[in-house]
Amino acid sequence: MGTLLQYNLIKYECSCGKWRMLPDLFYCRHCFKIKCDDCSCKEVDAIFCPRCLEPSSAPEARMKKHRCMNCNDCAKCGNVLSARTENEKCYLVCQHCRWSSRDAKQEDRENIKSWPSKENPLTSQLNEVTAYMKRLEVMENAPKDLKKGKSSKTWSAIHLKDKFNVQQMVEKRRKALVPDVNPVEAHAPTDPPTLEDELNDRSDVLRTLDQIIMQPLTNSSEPLLPVKVSLIGRVLVRCDECERTLVKRDFGVVTYKFKISSFAREFVPDIRMSRPVEDLKAGVTTPVFLSVTNLSSSSLDITIIPQAEEGFIQCSSEPIKLILPSSRSADSAAPGVHAEQSEVIVFRQHNRIGLRLDVIPSEANLESPVLDLLINYKQDGSFSLLATSEKVLNPEESGVDRILTARLRINLR
Amino acid sequence: MTDNSGVSIASSTIVCVEAEIKGEVTIKEGCVVHPHVVFDATNGPIYVGENNIFEEFAVIKNNSDGQPMIIGDSNIFQVHSKCSAKYVGSRNVIGVHAVLEDGCSVSDDCSVAPKSRIYSRQNLEPSVAVYGTSNAHRTTTTPNLTPTLQLEFLRKILPSYHHLYGKKKATPNQ
Asked: Which UniProt keywords apply (chain B) (predicted)?
């Protein structure tokens, strides 16, 4: 969609200084700033299987190793495996390359769920070592916790003076309660397999890198197994400064609606090329046709100022001042265009306006012709979403509409 | 559909009237031909066996000079597939947008994945699957199923919503 509407030619400046396409940007209406992917916080909102859309909670997903139990992919070509029933038992077949679970030397099963996957053979050993490390951590941190006075709140017999001669008994009990610290034995080093060994017990033809990456634990001597589909996460986007939510999807995996959405398109004037640019020649004035659209909920008071910096195309047009009604307002005719500027306006639709800017490219910037524009715009009343407490605290600020700016660069190629 | 002198279609075969059949085409018992399938036998005859399914926009075209094109039994030619092979065996699946180029031949139980291509003069051995963007080949042990249920369903449902070739004379296209 972005390439179809030629959004890729027009880059807006994010508040962090990066240049991005407008559909990729968010807008924080509390900080009045444009936010991009890199300067916003993201958190995983829901985890689900992309194939069967079954949602799972975070601990559940960790238990399942972030894989779906019901959906499988082909180990050969990565396409969907579908179940085929034969004699009341089923097996999985790839409709694309005809790889099946029978090729994986798996017997047919009665249900399509829980096909086996290769597990790490050292799992129990690994768990032992991590448990040992955790015990050590507890013991090392115990004196620190005591010093901090964390455990002083709970009454303990250790802190008593030996008035009644029970200290001995307490000591004995304490010793019994101290966790075992039998160190785990380091396992003997094993010889790494040589290339010859690997080539000798190769069961089938060479595997592609994609097939190996899909199941890294499977040795080359073992047959490939059906690959369980990995779960995906849906994110919730926050502003990194005020931590308010910018994008939040509706509850439920199946819906595509938004609970909160504050994309930059809905707040910043959307500028696009309305016609392809003719061939640029050095020193010749060439028209550039742009369309400005107001997708916000209130009318915009816009001033477009062409910038004439080093390295950018010179624009001979004067700054343009106009008022664009919102897409929701009923009246289509908008006032506020000066008569002498009317030759720059090509067309005027409901909430869209077509502009003509004249550019004079020089020899130096023919290689990469980029037009630099600065937009000052004012929205009336759209920021009444500010908290009521702030309105009470700064009444003079909340009443006045702020002048906001956006910078964009248009690639005239 | 102007010249249908060489067309011979068995009685139990269902051919929709929107299908375009040119030249000498023989279709045996039990086949199903969907609308907008093209059989072009102007350069040479086409012989089709039993119980084949030709889905919408499949193009079966004989490009050889007088050599017959032979198609066996229980094949499925899926939507938008193009076939100008000289021989297609039995129980094959030709996927969506798959292309069998001039003069290639496909034996039995093969599966040509969507968008893949069999080049001319290529001969597929039995039970070969062709897949992926690089047209990888591999021999399979999984057989293609014969589409009995699908055929039965289509034979029942297609005549109730389409005019059939050769049966109704007053058709909107003619």
From this structure: Cytoplasm, Cytoskeleton
- For residue A358, what are the CA distances in angstroms to A62, A100, A290, A331, A340? 59, 64, 11, 30, 15
Confidence of residue B34 (pLDDT cuts 50, 70, 90): very high
Number of structural domains (chain B) is 1
Q: Which CATH number do you get for residue B19? A: 2.160.10.10
Instruction: Say which amino acid occupies A285.
Output: T
Alpha carbons B35 and B39: distance in angstroms, whole number: 12
Determine the residue of chain B that is closest to A100 in CA distance: B142
Instruction: Identify which has the larger pLDDT, A388 or B30.
Output: B30
Q: Which residues from chain A sit within 8 angstroms of residue B111, using beta carbons?
A: 98
Cβ contact, residue pair B141, A97, below 8 Å: no
Q: What distance in Å separates residue A97's CA from the closest CA in chain B?
A: 5
Mean pLDDT of A333-337: 52
pLDDT at residue A159 tops 70: no
Mean pLDDT score, A151-173: 66
Position B110 in a domain: yes
Q: Which CATH architecture has domain A270-411?
A: Sandwich (2.60)
Provide the phi-psi class of A245: left if phi over 0, else alpha when psi is between -120 and 50, else beta: beta
Contact A97 B132 (CB under 8 A): yes
Residue B63 in domain: yes
User: Does B89 reside within a domain?
Assistant: yes
Q: For residue B114, what pLDDT band results from cuts at 50, 70 and 90?
A: very high
What is the mean predicted confidence (pLDDT) over B32-41?
Answer: 94
ipTM of the complex: 0.78
Nearest to A77 among B131, B140, B141 (CB): B131
Both tokens of residue A373?
Answer: 């524009």
Question: Chain B partners of A84 at a C-beta cutoff of 8 Å?
Answer: 145
Shortest distance, CA A111 to any CA of chain B (angstroms)? 19
Confidence of residue B172 (pLDDT cuts 50, 70, 90): very low
Q: Can you give the three-state secondary structure of chain B, one letter per residue?
A: CCCCCCCEECCCCEEECCCEEEEEEEECCCCEECCCCEEEEEEEEEEECCCCEECCCCEEECCCCCCCEEECCCCEECCCCEECCCEECCCCEECCCCEECCCCEECCCCEECCCCEECCCCEECCCEEEECCCCEEEECCCCCCCCHHHHHHHHHHHHHHCCECCCCCCCCCC
Distance CA B111, CA B102 (A): 18
* Nearest in space to A246 (alpha carbons), one of A43, A383, A17, A18: A43
